[in-house]
Amino acid sequence: MTSNAELLEIAATVARRAAAFALQRRRDGVEIAASKSSLSDIVTRADRETEQLIRDTLSAARPRDGFLGEESGGGSSQSGLTWVVDPIDGTVNYFYGIPAWAVSIAVVEGDPEPTTWNTLAGAVVNPVSGEAFTAYAGGGARLNGEPIHVTDGMELPLALIGTGFGYDAEVRRRQAGFVAELIGDVRDIRRIGAASLDLCSVAAGRLDGYYERGLNPWDHAAGALIAAEAGARVAGIGGGPADRRLTVAAGPDLFEQLHPRVERFYADWD
Ligand code: IPD
Ligand code: CA
Ligand code: CA
Ligand code: CA
């Protein structure tokens, strides 16, 4: 059986290779391939090509494992392990040349949909900054090999909070409603534009907390493990696993203050 540390080595190696590829494609010139659910929901050729590279590399190295990627969907697992991949998280930043996008690769045990998985290892690589955030279950979280930790003992009024918005206009309006409610009660709010980097920012103490509604498994699988291994509590509705309805991540003290506020607003949405 492959250890979690060995799985992380694979995730990180493939993520670095894909990151270099996507960065080179960006330098060659970015091209929108299609709009997906709405005009703001774009996909570039590089999103698809990067996912194909990751998928081909993983299926050659790990032929019995499953795959779930944003651009090419799922493939069944014979081993019980599935690789959950966002080839470019932060496509809008990628398109505009804002240096906050990442390749996110996690390997999970169990079923990614619904979220009844156990994440074993995860790597999030920002190719522009050269930062690689990594973690395996039980092994702590690292940034370029150095241990990272969440901020601790944080009070909500002093907290810098990250969030994001979905692509549907109606959903966004409602999400903005909660931002309007929270903004007066916290230090400030950031919309970085890549959920994986939001979660890794919590892990590295660059954000005190983060919440978002509407994330897909590939947005949060790797980042949620990295945040948790850095000391964050990461949970969704009712303290259950992070899922499409809600993801909240923060150091334990701040989590106690942030999670109930967000949950109260979002719980009865479905
Ligand atoms: C999006 C980003 C964004 C978040 C959205 C995601 P994509 O992923 O992570 O920050 O707010 O919910 O869909 O489409 O750029 O991979
Ligand atoms: Ca997308
Ligand atoms: Ca994403
Ligand atoms: Ca993506």
From TrEMBL:
Alphabetical keyword list: Hydrolase, Magnesium, Metal-binding
Xref: InterPro entries: IMPase, Inositol_monoP_metal-BS, Inositol_monophosphatase-like, Inositol_monophosphatase_CS
Domain of life: Bacteria
An MF annotation (GO) of this entry: inositol monophosphate 1-phosphatase activity
Pathway membership: Amino-acid biosynthesis; L-histidine biosynthesis; L-histidine from 5-phospho-alpha-D-ribose 1-diphosphate: step 8/9
Alphabetized CDD domains for the sequence: IMPase
Gene3D superfamilies: 3.40.190.80, Fructose-1,6-Bisphosphatase, subunit A, domain 1
EC number(s) reported in the record: 3.1.3.25
Cofactor(s) required, per the database record: Mg(2+)
Catalytic activity: L-histidinol phosphate + H2O = L-histidinol + phosphate; a myo-inositol phosphate + H2O = myo-inositol + phosphate
Biological process, per Gene Ontology: inositol metabolic process; phosphatidylinositol phosphate biosynthetic process; signal transduction
Enzyme class at the top of the EC tree: hydrolase
Residues where Mg(2+) binds: E70, D86, I88, D89, D219
General function of this protein: Catalyzes the dephosphorylation of histidinol-phosphate to histidinol, the direct precursor of histidine.
Family: Belongs to the inositol monophosphatase superfamily.
Descriptive protein name: Inositol-1-monophosphatase
Organism this protein belongs to: Leifsonia soli
Taxonomic lineage from the root: Bacteria, Bacillati, Actinomycetota, Actinomycetes, Micrococcales
